[in-house]
Amino acid sequence: MTILSLPITCALTACELAVMVDPQSEVSITHATYVTNHQLDADSDGNIESVICDDRVTELTYNFNYTGRLHRWDSFLEGVLSGQIRGEATFYPDAPHVHYSPENVEVTYTILPTAAPLVVAGTTDIAINPTPSVIGYTQLKVRINGHYSAIRLTSEEIPVVTSC
Asked: Which SS3 state, helix, strand or coil, does residue 144 take?
Protein backbone atom coordinates (compact mmCIF):
# COMPACT_ATOMS: atom_id res chain seq x y z
CA MET A 1 0.00 0.00 0.00
CA THR A 2 1.43 3.39 -0.98
CA ILE A 3 0.16 6.74 0.23
CA LEU A 4 0.00 9.65 -2.20
CA SER A 5 0.38 13.06 -0.55
CA LEU A 6 -1.31 15.59 -2.80
CA PRO A 7 -2.19 19.23 -2.37
CA ILE A 8 -5.95 19.62 -1.96
CA THR A 9 -6.18 21.46 -5.26
CA CYS A 10 -4.66 18.43 -7.02
CA ALA A 11 -6.79 15.78 -5.32
CA LEU A 12 -7.72 13.04 -7.74
CA THR A 13 -11.14 12.15 -6.38
CA ALA A 14 -13.74 13.28 -3.88
CA CYS A 15 -15.87 11.02 -1.73
CA GLU A 16 -19.56 11.71 -1.26
CA LEU A 17 -21.25 12.41 2.06
CA ALA A 18 -24.64 10.83 2.76
CA VAL A 19 -27.31 13.50 3.28
CA MET A 20 -30.21 12.92 5.71
CA VAL A 21 -32.85 15.67 5.52
CA ASP A 22 -36.12 16.47 7.30
CA PRO A 23 -38.64 17.75 4.72
CA GLN A 24 -39.52 20.60 7.12
CA SER A 25 -35.98 22.02 6.99
CA GLU A 26 -35.43 25.61 5.83
CA VAL A 27 -32.29 24.62 3.91
CA SER A 28 -31.65 21.98 1.27
CA ILE A 29 -28.25 20.29 0.78
CA THR A 30 -26.95 18.66 -2.40
CA HIS A 31 -23.62 17.41 -3.71
CA ALA A 32 -21.77 16.99 -0.40
CA THR A 33 -18.20 15.66 -0.77
CA TYR A 34 -14.90 15.43 1.09
CA VAL A 35 -11.28 14.80 0.15
CA THR A 36 -7.99 14.61 2.05
CA ASN A 37 -4.48 15.44 0.90
CA HIS A 38 -3.46 11.78 1.39
CA GLN A 39 -4.86 8.99 -0.76
CA LEU A 40 -4.31 5.28 -1.21
CA ASP A 41 -3.06 4.10 -4.60
CA ALA A 42 -5.70 3.43 -7.21
CA ASP A 43 -7.22 -0.05 -7.15
CA SER A 44 -7.75 -2.18 -10.27
CA ASP A 45 -10.84 -0.09 -11.12
CA GLY A 46 -8.88 3.17 -10.84
CA ASN A 47 -10.60 4.22 -7.61
CA ILE A 48 -8.54 6.30 -5.18
CA GLU A 49 -9.49 6.47 -1.50
CA SER A 50 -8.90 9.48 0.75
CA VAL A 51 -7.26 8.56 4.07
CA ILE A 52 -6.18 10.26 7.30
CA CYS A 53 -2.52 9.73 8.16
CA ASP A 54 -2.06 8.99 11.86
CA ASP A 55 1.62 9.98 11.80
CA ARG A 56 1.49 13.28 9.91
CA VAL A 57 -0.72 16.32 9.42
CA THR A 58 -3.75 15.66 7.20
CA GLU A 59 -5.83 18.35 5.50
CA LEU A 60 -9.48 17.28 5.09
CA THR A 61 -11.70 19.50 2.96
CA TYR A 62 -15.46 19.08 2.69
CA ASN A 63 -17.98 21.04 0.69
CA PHE A 64 -21.67 21.08 -0.05
CA ASN A 65 -24.13 22.99 -2.19
CA TYR A 66 -27.19 24.44 -0.50
CA THR A 67 -30.33 26.46 -1.06
CA GLY A 68 -32.28 28.28 1.65
CA ARG A 69 -31.14 29.85 4.92
CA LEU A 70 -27.83 28.51 6.15
CA HIS A 71 -27.14 29.86 9.66
CA ARG A 72 -24.35 27.67 11.01
CA TRP A 73 -23.10 24.12 10.96
CA ASP A 74 -21.08 21.85 13.23
CA SER A 75 -18.63 19.24 12.05
CA PHE A 76 -16.52 16.62 13.80
CA LEU A 77 -14.80 13.27 13.44
CA GLU A 78 -16.33 10.21 15.12
CA GLY A 79 -14.51 6.92 15.68
CA VAL A 80 -16.39 4.10 13.95
CA LEU A 81 -15.87 1.54 16.73
CA SER A 82 -15.25 3.81 19.70
CA GLY A 83 -17.91 6.46 19.06
CA GLN A 84 -15.34 8.95 20.37
CA ILE A 85 -15.77 12.47 18.98
CA ARG A 86 -12.86 14.80 18.24
CA GLY A 87 -12.40 18.06 16.41
CA GLU A 88 -15.94 19.32 16.99
CA ALA A 89 -16.25 22.87 15.68
CA THR A 90 -19.07 25.28 14.87
CA PHE A 91 -18.82 27.25 11.65
CA TYR A 92 -20.57 30.33 10.33
CA PRO A 93 -20.42 31.71 6.79
CA ASP A 94 -17.68 34.21 7.73
CA ALA A 95 -15.60 31.83 9.92
CA PRO A 96 -11.88 31.20 9.27
CA HIS A 97 -11.15 28.19 7.02
CA VAL A 98 -14.57 28.60 5.38
CA HIS A 99 -14.99 29.49 1.71
CA TYR A 100 -18.60 30.60 1.48
CA SER A 101 -20.71 31.67 -1.46
CA PRO A 102 -24.48 32.03 -1.83
CA GLU A 103 -24.76 28.41 -3.02
CA ASN A 104 -21.65 26.57 -1.78
CA VAL A 105 -19.64 26.03 1.39
CA GLU A 106 -16.11 24.63 1.61
CA VAL A 107 -14.33 23.98 4.92
CA THR A 108 -10.76 22.79 5.48
CA TYR A 109 -9.84 20.91 8.66
CA THR A 110 -6.27 20.35 9.78
CA ILE A 111 -6.00 16.98 11.54
CA LEU A 112 -2.85 16.68 13.64
CA PRO A 113 -0.98 13.37 14.01
CA THR A 114 -2.78 10.88 16.32
CA ALA A 115 -5.85 13.16 16.51
CA ALA A 116 -8.38 11.04 14.57
CA PRO A 117 -10.68 9.08 16.91
CA LEU A 118 -10.50 5.31 16.43
CA VAL A 119 -9.76 2.12 18.32
CA VAL A 120 -6.31 0.58 18.08
CA ALA A 121 -5.94 -2.91 19.53
CA GLY A 122 -2.74 -4.21 21.07
CA THR A 123 0.69 -2.62 20.93
CA THR A 124 2.63 -1.14 18.07
CA ASP A 125 6.03 -2.53 17.10
CA ILE A 126 8.69 -0.27 15.66
CA ALA A 127 9.67 -1.33 12.15
CA ILE A 128 12.85 -0.34 10.34
CA ASN A 129 11.04 0.02 7.00
CA PRO A 130 7.42 0.55 7.99
CA THR A 131 4.69 -0.27 5.50
CA PRO A 132 1.57 1.90 5.48
CA SER A 133 -1.33 0.06 7.11
CA VAL A 134 -4.89 0.84 8.19
CA ILE A 135 -5.17 1.03 11.98
CA GLY A 136 -8.83 2.05 12.25
CA TYR A 137 -11.68 4.03 10.75
CA THR A 138 -13.35 7.34 11.49
CA GLN A 139 -16.23 9.30 9.94
CA LEU A 140 -16.72 12.96 9.15
CA LYS A 141 -20.10 14.18 10.38
CA VAL A 142 -21.74 17.56 9.74
CA ARG A 143 -24.92 18.95 11.35
CA ILE A 144 -26.56 21.82 9.48
CA ASN A 145 -28.14 24.70 11.46
CA GLY A 146 -27.53 23.39 14.97
CA HIS A 147 -27.03 20.47 17.36
CA TYR A 148 -30.51 19.01 16.93
CA SER A 149 -30.48 19.64 13.21
CA ALA A 150 -32.76 17.84 10.84
CA ILE A 151 -29.94 17.75 8.26
CA ARG A 152 -26.93 15.54 8.85
CA LEU A 153 -24.08 14.74 6.49
CA THR A 154 -22.10 11.55 7.15
CA SER A 155 -19.04 10.27 5.31
CA GLU A 156 -18.25 6.68 4.56
CA GLU A 157 -15.69 5.12 6.89
CA ILE A 158 -12.41 6.99 6.36
CA PRO A 159 -9.34 4.78 6.86
CA VAL A 160 -6.76 6.01 9.37
CA VAL A 161 -3.34 4.89 8.18
CA THR A 162 -0.03 4.66 10.02
CA SER A 163 3.44 4.86 8.43
CA CYS A 164 2.31 7.21 5.68
From this structure: strand
> 158-162 and 52-53: which strand pairing?
parallel
Whole-model pTM? 0.80
3-state DSSP assignment of residue 128 = coil
Helix H or strand E segment including 106: strand 104-111
Question: What is the 8-class DSSP label of residue 50?
Answer: B
- pLDDT category of residue 4 using cuts at 50, 70 and 90: very low
Check if the beta carbon of residue 153 is closer than 8 Å to that of residue 161: no
- Write the CATH number for 100: 2.60.40.10
Backbone angles phi, psi at 45, to 5 degrees: -90, 0
Q: How many structural domains compose the chain? A: 1
Which residues constitute the domain of residue 146?
Answer: 3-162
Give, for 108, the enclosing helix (H) or strand (E). strand 104-111
